Amino acid sequence: MYATERQQLIERLLADDGRVAVIDLASRFDVTTETVRRDLATLEGAGILRRVHGGAVSPERTSVVEPSVAERSQRHSAAKERIARRALEALPAGSGSIYLDAGTTTAALAAALAGDQPAPGREVVTHSMAIAHTLAAAPGLGLTAIGGRVRGLTAAAVGADTVAAVSRLRPDVAFLGTNGIGASVGLTTPDPDEAAVKRAIVAGARRLIVLADADKFDAELLVSFADLPELDVVVTDRQPGAVLARALRDADVEVWIS
User: Fold this and answer.
1) Cα of 145 vs its chain's centroid, Å
2) How far out from the chain centre does Cα 251 lie?
3) DSSP line for the chain
4) Contact 165, 146 (CB under 8 A)
5) What is the spatial distance between Cα 205 and Cα 169, in angstroms, rounded to a whole number?
6) Cβ-proximal residues to 182 (8 Å cutoff; 6+ apart), any chain
7) Model pLDDT, residue 16
């Protein structure tokens, strides 16, 4: 196979999966790892990918890139709705307190929750302005919106006052969003202020449910805010790859496929 043919196939694999591994490509093409690395260097020079340890990722998967809420809400919308529906199974039976993190998949959960038959005494807390708006008129739900400086990119409150308010809470279950989930780094996000709020949610919740479509697998953003052993359940739309699946299993994290 010519180098240009290999590189075209690598580009297609990257478009499908968002990430490629040097060892896997060498086995697939029956070439040396050095040959694969040369191919990746060529593709990186053309702006098609970004090389990382052990392989390469799509160029938009840098540690600080963060699409807006409007952009993210259009991505994998059907998968997010399925994840949200499956995540409803993790709601506490009867009355109970729920924290909803900011994010497009947690927003899909809020929409599902608004249309669900609420249990008496169910209380929801969120720092997401979008989620608060969705749930404000939902019958039978108690709602607390935590304020602070609103970050326009995510429509979520952030800052010291927000973190202090979240830190005082001990919800029965928290539904957490993330920009990336990796075997070695856990959950990550590009913004330090968002990460600080998420750490406070993680520290206070009695049970942590992460909602993440498969596009988040193996993505590593700038700031880590939770280790895998701190999680209870990951609700997703596809089985993680072998390395991440093993890390989740070793951390005793359940994986629910929607």
Assistant:
1) 22
2) 18
3) --HHHHHHHHHHHHHHHSEEEHHHHHHHHT--HHHHHHHHHHHHHTTS-EEETTEEE-TT--SS----HHHHHHTTHHHHHHHHHHHGGGSPSSSEEEEE-SSHHHHHHHHHHHTS-PPTTEEEEESBHHHHHHHTT-TT-EEEE--SEEETTTTEEESHHHHHHHHT---SEEEE--SEEETTTEEEES-HHHHHHHHHHHHH-SSEEEE--GGGBT---SEEEE-GGG-SEEEESSPPPHHHHHHHHHTT-EEEE-
4) yes
5) 8
6) 188, 217, 218, 219, 220, 244
7) 75
- Phi/psi of residue 153, each to 5°? -65, -30
Q: How far is CA 57 from CA 51, 70, 107, 201, 231, in A?
A: 6, 23, 27, 29, 26
| Per-residue pLDDT reduced to its tens digit, 181-231 | 999 999 999 999 999 999 999 999 999 999 999 989 988 888 999 999 999
